[in-house]
Amino acid sequence: MPKKRSGGGLSPTQQAAKFLGVSVLAGVVLAGIALPAAGALGLAAKGSVQGFDDIPANLKRPPLSQRTTILDAQGKQLAQVYSRDRTVVELKDISPYMQKAIVAIEDSRFYQHGAIDLKGVLRALNKNAQSGGVAQGASTLTQQYVKNVFVEEAGDDPTKVAEATQQTLGRKIKELKYAIQVEQDLGKKKILENYLNITFFGEQAYGVEAASQRYFSQHAKDLTLPQAALLAGIVQSPSRYDPVNDEAEATKRRNTVLQRMAEVGDISQAEADKAKQAPLELKVTQPRNGCITAVKDSSFFCKYVEQVFLTDPVFGKTRAERAKVWNQGGLTIRTTLDPQAQASVQASLKQHINQSDSVAAASVLVQPGTGKVLAMGQSKPYGYGKNETEINYSVGSDLGGSNFGFPTGSTFKPFVAAAALEQGKPPTQEYPSPYKMPYPSPVQACDGKRWTNNEHADVENESTSEHGPYALKEAMAKSVNTYFVQMISDIGLCPVVTMTDKLHVVQGNGEKLPQLPAIALGSKGITPLTMASAYAAFASRGTYCTPVAIESITQKVGDQEKPLAVPRTTCTRAMSEKTADTVNSLLKGVIDSGTGQQAGLSDRDNAGKTGTTDERKNAWFVGYTPNLSGAVWVGSATQQVKMTDIRIGGVYHDLVYGADVPGPIWRDAMTGALAGKPAPSFNLVDIPDADKGKDKGKGNSRGRGDNGGGQGDDGGLIGGLFGALTGGGTGTGGAGPNPTFSAPGGFIQGQTGGTRGNANGGRHG
After folding, report:
1. Is residue 510 within 8 Å of residue 398, measured between CB atoms?
2. Contacts of 164 by beta carbon, 8 Å cutoff, 6+ apart
3. For the segment 449-477, what is each residue's pLDDT rounded down to a tens digit?
4. Strand partners, 552
5. N or C end of the chain, less CB within 10 A?
6. What one-character-per-residue DSSP string does 245-256 give?
7. What's the rounded Cα separation, in Å, for the pair 235 and 306?
């Protein structure tokens, strides 16, 4: 009995590998790649053994990239996205005709040989010698599978793809060794299954299931003999034998496959001849890849989901890791999108604004208490043509949106009010609120800093008839700019910044809001999603929840499915219930009797705020019910269009306000989204009307100066004058029949009027 080496002895497979590496490799390489016939044999034999042994023993087989399916909250498909359109199927789900056809044309001795077909090598060498070139290759189906694994691992990196397919000795040596290992590990049937799932069939279709769907709109298990032969023929050259672009060439190739199947005994000659006469009968399904194909006008929401996946650390530590998982695909992503809400948003946008208008609109609906994004739409559809855009106006730059968001106008004022209420200011708080005034200076900021009005900037209201004194309720309803600037001067900037931090209100580029009084007037760019989510905290009685778009994800790897962790909303208390209830009462007044009357819902409690910015480049309405919050922005993405003397949705506007364009969009979107849904009530706070005598135009009114005051019983006018003169500051009088006039030391006013507020740095409604 021959002696055996103890440990380290070569197994039969390893001995075969070394033998093949030395004795056969040169011939296989010559048969498989285009190299001159002379001289290369010695090189291959001389250097192949060491190279063969140095190659790692195990072929890394990455999971095959597959299509990802994005679903709405009801489980209905919104879109499919993929880097490679592929659906992995088991061999039992592939037509027997397809299995036989691919073996017959690519490797007819597949079941007789091992990883390398020596007969095929000799045959190829003979033909290549006769032709003086490379007339025939000898790569087995197993070797082709290994090469496809290299290509799959390279992904979309052109350099790596070139390395995986280059015709070199080194690559061929590696391919040979791994082919031997694969034959041993997998067996013939699994190799065939893997090959049919990995190979490229042209027209963006990877794997036989995707190819069957692409060319015939049916499953791979249902392929007929002529259909299977057509697909098998494509593999050698997907561009040359593409039946969509060259039916004649594809038919000729199909018939070659049919004849080969007859020659190897898979079918009879009669069956082959009959199949050759069959028309191709293509039923092509066009590639539908990416969010641009999303149904229900959900393309922007689809892109939002994709960007959430690529940016959230829950899916990987780095963006590269997350992108790898996304590109690998095989994901089924169930989202928060509510089809009823989405349909309502898009219907409202289309009703009120045209795709071809010079301005655009974006709308987002968020569920209070959960952070779920229920709808996201735009008036200009997703695309790359005229009056289309790929920019999601509803989100920030980190999620594929605008670089800075859009100035929000007076929709920012409720944040100031909430901050003041949290500081203990009563909802009846009054400020003189003149029509025009310098920004108060200095104003206390965070960290002991102070803001100073070094530029002597002024702030003014929308109309000269808007002058105080005002209490908070009326100031909010009429959107009085000078009131809220004075409120910030009173409480300081830091409480406002603290409140916006708790509500996660940041600029569209992700930066925090600057500490200056003009933020009260919405001068900085913020996104609709941010605004809708922040207002949702008022609706949920002070609890802020981070927005979420993904409910669950499963990933298919091979024939196994596994769940993935997904981001969860984080809910925190941003303000007391009392503060939130008070803000709800204030903003209900905006809709009941203030600037937002055109936006109000008639069948349920609702509240909201209008906003219009400098030169009317932006108009907003942000509002909510106890169970739904929504934001609507209208304007130009370039911020170049002034919405004056303009037609929007076919309707002429001399001046656009937050109430008359965004307001009705919000109203109709919310109405449809909430149809059939519960109508809970707010927990309202009774806020007394300040100085009711002011509305009656008679005496018993106050005159008051900022630094002291006098009070008179002789009528509002006299009282105001007395207070102004004795107080040394701003004087205000009770209601009277006379128009406003001024006197040294202060302002004296009669009955106030006006509808919408404005701002220096932004005219706001």
Report:
1. yes
2. 147, 150, 151, 153, 154, 171
3. 899 988 889 999 988 888 989 999 999 99
4. 334
5. N
6. T-HHHHHHHHHH
7. 32
Burial 612-638 (b: 16+ CB within 10 A, else e): bbbebbbbbbbbbbbbbbbbbbbbbee
Express each pLDDT in 100-122 by its tens digit: 999 999 999 999 888 777 776 66
For the whole prediction, is pTM greater than 0.70?
A: yes
What's phi and psi for 516, nearest 5 deg? -150, 150
Look up residue 738 and give its DSSP letter: S
Element (H, E) at 619: strand 618-625
Whole-number Å distance between alpha carbons of 617 and 361: 12
Q: Say which residue the tokens 């130009």 belong to.
A: 636
Angstrom distance (rounded) from CA 559 to CA 557: 6
Written as six digits, the tokens of 610 are 């209008």
Residue 422 belongs to what H/E stretch?
Answer: helix 413-422
What are the strands, taking DSSP E only, across 387-513? 406-407, 430-431, 436-438, 443-444, 450-451, 458-460, 470-471
Lowest average pLDDT, out of 317-326, 430-439, 712-721, goes to: 712-721
Average pLDDT estimate for 436-443: 92
| 499: helix, strand or coil | helix
Which residues face 630 on adjacent strands?
365, 623
The count of residues in the chain is 765
Instruction: Name the 3-class secondary structure at 631.
Output: strand
Handedness of CA 478, 642, 536, 377 (dihedral sign): positive
Q: What is the largest CA-CA distance in the chain?
A: 131
Dist CA 675 CA 679 (whole Å): 10
Please list the residues that pair with 564 across neighbouring strands: 553
Please choose, from the candidates 645, 666, 641, the residue with its C-alpha nearest in 3D space to the C-alpha of residue 656.
645
Residue type, 501: D
Place of tokens 């400020």: 431
- The answer to whether 276 and 255 are in contact (CB under 8 A) is yes
- Ordered alpha helix ranges (H), 23-69: 25-32, 40-54
* Spatial separation of the C-alpha atoms in residues 194 and 145, rounded to whole Å: 7
Task: Name every residue whose Cβ is closer than 8 Å to that of residue 142 and which is 6 or more positions away in sequence.
Answer: 107, 110, 115, 179, 182, 183, 191
Question: Tokens 């023929």 correspond to what residue?
Answer: 233
Cα-trace Rg, the chain: 37
Provide the β-strand partners of residue 560: 557
Least Cα distance to 112 among 192, 24, 32, 188 occurs for 188
Distance of CA 104 to CAs 236, 361, 591, Å? 13, 58, 75
pLDDT digits 0-9 by tens, 687-729: 987 654 444 333 333 333 333 333 333 333 333 333 333 333 3
- What are 710's two structure tokens? 């006098």
Q: Cα separation of 670 and 599, whole Å?
A: 10
Cβ neighbours of residue 524 closer than 8 Å, sequence gap 6 or more = 405, 407, 408, 507, 513, 514
Averaged confidence pLDDT in the chain: 81
The string over 65-95, giving b where at least 16 C-beta atoms fall within 10 Å of a residue's C-beta and e elsewhere, is bbbbbbbbbeeeebbbbbbbbbbbbeeeebb
Q: Rounded CA gap, 352 and 363, in Å?
A: 12
The pLDDT value given to residue 709: 34
Residue 629 CA to residue 369 CA, distance in Å, equals 10
Residue 52 pLDDT exceeds 90: no
| Rounded alpha-carbon distances, angstroms, from residue 253 to 233, 238, 280, 730 | 6, 11, 12, 93
Cα separation, 374 vs 363, in Å, equals 11
| Confidence band for 124, pLDDT divided at 50, 70 and 90 | low
Q: What backbone torsions phi and psi does residue 466 show, to the nearest 5 degrees?
A: -90, 100
pLDDT tens per residue, range 627-678: 999 999 999 988 999 999 999 999 999 999 988 999 999 999 999 999 999 9
Quick one: tokens of 645? Answer: 């003397």
